[in-house]
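FAQ

Q: What does a record look like?
A: Structure on top, sequence underneath. For example:
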C-alpha cells in the first residue's frame, strides 16, 4: 500500500427478504410451521449466518407476516401491496436505506441457502467497483433438471459474467453425450435466484419497463442484460431448493428433521 492510500473501503450491505402473502401453488407458505418455526423465520435465520451484511429486513405486503417477523425478533417493514414484483418490494425498502451501498435480494422461500453463498454474492460487487449486479449459479448434473423449464439456466462468458438466462437447456448440445453432465468445469449451470445490487442501480432497475426477452421467458434478470448492463455470476456447489409446492415443503421438513436428529446423535 502506498503511503497516500488508506485502507480499502468495504461497501455497507444489507439483506432484504421480499415476502408476500399470496402464493399460487402453496397457500400462505411463508407462515407454514411444521418444523416449529415459520418458513420465513427459517429464511431469516439463514440470512443471519452471512458475515458481510450489516442487517436483515423482511419487506412484506401483509400485516400477518409483519407480525410473525416481529414475534421471532426480526426486523420487518411494510411495503405497497400493489408492488409488481419482489424486486420492486426490495427497492421500496432500499429507498429507506440511504446509508446502504449494496442490497441483497434473498427470496423468502429459500430457507437453506448458506451464509457463505450470501457473502459471495456481496463479495463479487466489493471486488469489482464497476459492476452493478451479481448473482450465483450451481452445476447441473441431471438431465431431467436440465430439461425442466422451472430450472433456470445461465451461460457465462470468460470473465464470469452472464451472457444469457433461459428456461431452455443452454448451451444446447447439438450431439448429446451423458459425459457433458459430469464435465469439470461444468457445462451446464442452474441460476440461483439470489441477487446483490448497487443500491442506485436497484432503484433505477425498479423503474425500467420489462424487456422483450423478459416478457417471453418471464425472467426479470434479462431486463438487465438487454439494457446493456453486466451481471457477475459466482459458482457454488450448493443445490438450491426453493419452496414452491406442497412436495417441496414436505421435503424441506424431512431434511430439517433428519438434520436435527443427526445433531442429537
Amino acid at each position: 500500500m502506498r503511503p497516500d492510500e488508506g485502507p480499502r473501503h468495504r461497501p455497507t450491505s444489507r439483506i432484504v427478504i421480499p415476502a408476500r402473502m399470496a402464493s399460487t401453488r402453496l397457500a400462505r407458505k411463508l407462515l407454514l410451521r411444521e418444523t416449529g418455526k415459520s418458513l420465513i423465520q427459517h429464511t431469516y435465520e439463514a440470512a443471519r449466518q452471512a458475515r458481510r451484511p450489516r442487517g436483515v429486513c423482511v419487506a412484506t405486503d401483509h400485516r400477518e407476516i409483519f407480525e410473525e417477523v416481529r414475534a421471532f425478533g426480526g426486523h420487518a417493514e411494510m411495503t405497497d401491496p400493489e408492488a409488481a414484483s419482489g424486486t420492486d418490494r426490495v427497492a421500496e425498502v432500499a429507498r429507506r436505506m440511504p446509508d446502504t451501498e449494496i442490497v441483497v435480494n434473498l427470496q423468502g422461500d429459500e430457507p437453506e441457502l448458506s451464509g457463505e453463498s450470501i457473502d459471495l454474492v456481496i463479495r463479487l460487487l466489493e471486488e469489482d467497483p464497476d459492476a452493478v449486479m451479481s448473482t450465483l449459479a450451481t452445476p447441473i448434473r441431471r438431465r431431467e433438471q436440465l430439461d425442466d423449464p422451472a430450472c433456470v439456466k445461465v451461460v457465462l462468458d470468460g470473465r464470469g459474467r452472464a451472457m444469457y438466462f433461459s428456461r431452455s437447456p443452454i448451451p444446447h448440445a447439438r450431439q448429446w453425450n451423458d459425459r457433458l453432465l459430469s464435465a469439470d468445469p461444468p457445462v451446464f449451470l442452474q441460476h440461483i435466484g439470489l441477487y446483490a445490487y448497487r443500491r442506485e442501480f436497484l432503484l433505477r432497475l425498479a423503474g425500467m419497463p420489462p424487456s422483450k426477452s423478459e416478457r417471453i421467458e418471464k425472467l426479470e434478470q434479462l431486463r438487465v442484460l438487454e439494457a446493456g448492463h453486466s451481471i457477475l455470476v459466482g459458482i457454488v456447489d450448493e443445490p438450491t431448493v426453493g419452496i414452491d409446492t406442497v412436495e417441496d415443503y414436505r421435503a424441506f421438513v424431512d431434511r430439517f428433521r433428519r438434520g436435527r436428529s443427526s445433531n442429537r446423535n
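Q: Is there anything notable about this one?
A: The chain has one domain: 13-260.
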